[in-house]
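In practice, a research group might receive sequence data for several interacting partners and want a quick structural hypothesis before committing to experiments. The following worked case mirrors that situation: the sequences arrive first, and a predicted assembly follows.
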Amino acid sequence: MSVTLQTGPFEPGALLTAFSAGRTETGAVASFTGLARAEQGGTDILELEAYPGLTDAEIARIAREAAERFGLQDWLIVHRIGRIAPGEAIVFVATASAHRREAFEACDYLMDYLKSRAPFWKKSHGPDGARWIEPTDRDRTDVERWETP
Amino acid sequence: MSVTLQTGPFEPGALLTAFSAGRTETGAVASFTGLARAEQGGTDILELEAYPGLTDAEIARIAREAAERFGLQDWLIVHRIGRIAPGEAIVFVATASAHRREAFEACDYLMDYLKSRAPFWKKSHGPDGARWIEPTDRDRTDVERWETP
Amino acid sequence: MARVLLFGRLADIAGWRERVVPGASLTEVRAALSADADLAEALAGKGVQVAVDKVIVRGEAGLTATSEVAFMPPMSGG
Amino acid sequence: MARVLLFGRLADIAGWRERVVPGASLTEVRAALSADADLAEALAGKGVQVAVDKVIVRGEAGLTATSEVAFMPPMSGG
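A structural hypothesis for the assembly, expressed as tokens:
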């Protein structure tokens, strides 16, 4: 149960291996890896800014709530910050539970939160210069799926 | 895009690493790892039987349909057969797509299929002897979520 | 003649998993297997599927000397 | 006095990311920053949040000499 913000590249498979090891009562490990897309040459570099101390605390708070809501046994979130090249991993989320539905839903929920409401500021550097990116309409509707009426 | 049935242990992280490598137009890789549970000493060994040539062909057929339905860029399924100890991986599914919703849904769909309808026969060996396992009611209702009315 | 494979609990009931059985059709193979009454009853049970040469078939099918006939109880999923 | 941090496009507009600014309250800090009209307009913009010592605050807040004040434009998600 930890959130890590890191400036260097990370390897999702190594994180999954460590997260899955030694679990004899976990039936299900769901994971999500977000990769930086080249967008057919439209993006050279993605630049992600966080506010260390606030960003990680806020993500951890949401993850603890999700662990409670979905009955997780464990979770792990690693998020790149700084400059990220196409094909590199931006985010890795893993969730562990006894049965698969909880692990899937919690992983999906955490990604919707991370992509739409987590305290990051994202800039895309491409051949036409740099621009700030905001959540897409789909990011907004995705995260709204989880709100209880 | 491959299905592997294998009798020896496999390492989910290594599969995720290989699957995620070199993708510059994939934004999303979802994965699921199913682990054998000890069930507090209720299960010593899980024994999974497949019909090679039929089981893998049937899984590949369903996965190709799912790739079409969800617009996947790629997918990978590895399934253990034979005797499996608690904590070992039984199944690994990875899906790749441009955006995350498709990868999540396809991975979830494939697991629902694999857990309820894939041609496997499963026996649990515990302190009270061996017994054959059938899909749970939840496995059945989970897979029915995907049926178009 | 057909190579018959039994899966899951069918193999436990029969005490074997693979055997060459005489018969030029599924009906004849089933008849040859009915010497074991417990197995015959299990083979006729609900949800038992039959595959010939790794393709699921319903009803009757002709067999050659190299046919592989599999009897599969309800699948448990992985 | 407060250490002021600007995030995202606010830092691009101001041309700096971190600066010590005089003021014993958020109002006084905003007043000190208003010498840069573009920044002042951006800070007053829709969805800009303020954190004091890494906790998001709404409205006014008193500051000490060691306070860290962060101005955060709408978050983009990761």
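Before designing any experiment, note the following. The radius of gyration of chain D is 11 Å. Residues 13 and 38 of chain D are 7 Å apart (CA to CA).
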